Amino acid sequence: MSASPCCGGTAATVASYRCRVAEHYWVNQRYKYIRLEADAPIAPITKAGQFYQLKCPTALGHEPFLLRPMSVYGAGPEENRIEFLYNVTGVGTKAMATLPEGGYMDIVGPLGNTFTFNARYRRILVVARGVGLATMAPLIKEASRAGVEITAVMSARSPADLMEKEFLRGATADVRSVFDADGSSSVEAVDGLIRKLIEEQRPNAVYTCGSQRLLMLLQRVLSDYPHITAEVAMEQHMACGMGVCLSCVRMFDSDGDRRFLRVCREGPVFPIREVVGEVEFG
């Protein structure tokens, strides 16, 4: 069964877009949702797993110098519509959180590659924690449209942080929730859960994003299941986002050949089994 990049198509030309803030609100105490309307068609060229560089405003003493990379949470159905879901945690996102509806923001993209997905898959397994759910939400949508069954292991600090509704966005899925608060998100517990799901449900592919701990866990588990497609969308601190500054390089191992690759350019989606060493997640 051959696979192809999710949503198909060829790489789009990177461009800068002037966007109006159509909606902007708090989802919970940590995360905000923002919907932008671009000055040109943007949804048709934006694929699952890609990201944009966002120019955050200067506000309340926050003066972000660099553009901020942010995974696409959604695009469409209007051609000029794009959505982001973000954790308000640093200088850039705190400044971004002050943007009023009706205001404007400049973004650059689309950047990066896409998830490998085949509409003929029977089932996929997604493992998400924190802001990683925003990155994989478009993949969930694509799988749902194709009639592919979905199992989602969602990890969070507590039930209040889970955002299951925001992750699925109407898609039907077998959701298994684990939390730090009750210990169900421990490495041992999740290891057992993932192995049980793989044995019982036999997914064609496994995807993750948002947690170094979950990435390492999946590397161990999936070494026993070499036939399963397995990918991680890496969230990495970066400057230019276009492969020039080399600030986001990480080491990967492909068939014994170790090399440094740029998360922004060769990624952000990589085979889980090829990631080497420590990986920083934003």
Q: Which key terms come to mind for this protein?
A:
Elongation Factor Tu (Ef-tu), domain 3, single chain, Dihydroorotate_DH_Fe-S-bd, FNR_nucleotide-bd, globular, six-stranded mixed sheet
Structural class: alpha+beta
Task: List the helices and strands in order.
Answer: EEEEEEEHEEEHEHEHEHEEEE
What is the highest CATH level, the class of the domain at 4-111? Mainly Beta
Q: Identify low-pLDDT runs.
A: 1-11
What is the C-alpha radius of gyration, as a whole number of Å? 18 Å
| Mean pLDDT level | 88
Fourth CATH level, the homologous superfamily of the domain at 4-111: Translation factors
CATH fold call of the domain at 4-111: Elongation Factor Tu (Ef-tu), domain 3
- Examine the secondary-structure arrangement and name the CATH architecture of the domain at 4-111: Beta Barrel
Number of helices: 5
Which shape, going by the Cα principal axes?
Answer: globular
For the sheet with most strands, the description reads:
7 strands, antiparallel
Distance linking N and C termini:
34 Å
What portion of residues is helical?
A: 10-25%
Secondary structure tally: strands: 17
Oligomeric description of these chains: single chain
What percentage of amino acids are in beta strands? Answer: 25-35%
The largest beta-sheet arranges its strands as 5-4-8-2-3-7-6
In words, what does this structure look like?
18% of the residues lie in helices and 34% in strands. It is α+β, with helices and mostly antiparallel strands and 282 residues long. Among the domains are: 4-111, Translation factors (Elongation Factor Tu (Ef-tu), domain 3); 124-207, Rossmann fold (3-Layer(aba) Sandwich). The strands form four sheets. The chain has a seven-stranded antiparallel sheet with strand order 5-4-8-2-3-7-6. Strands 12-11-10-13-14-17 form a six-stranded mixed sheet, sandwiched between helices. It has a two-stranded antiparallel sheet with strand order 1-9. Helix 4 (187-201) packs across helix 5 (212-222). The two termini are 34 Å apart. 39% of the residues are buried. Mean pLDDT is 88; it is low at 1-11. Keywords: 2Fe-2S, Electron transport, FAD, Flavoprotein, Iron, Iron-sulfur, Metal-binding, Transport. [2Fe-2S] cluster binds at residues 240, 245, 248, 264. FAD binds at residues 68-71, 92-93. GO terms for molecular function: 2 iron, 2 sulfur cluster binding; flavin adenine dinucleotide binding; metal ion binding; oxidoreductase activity.
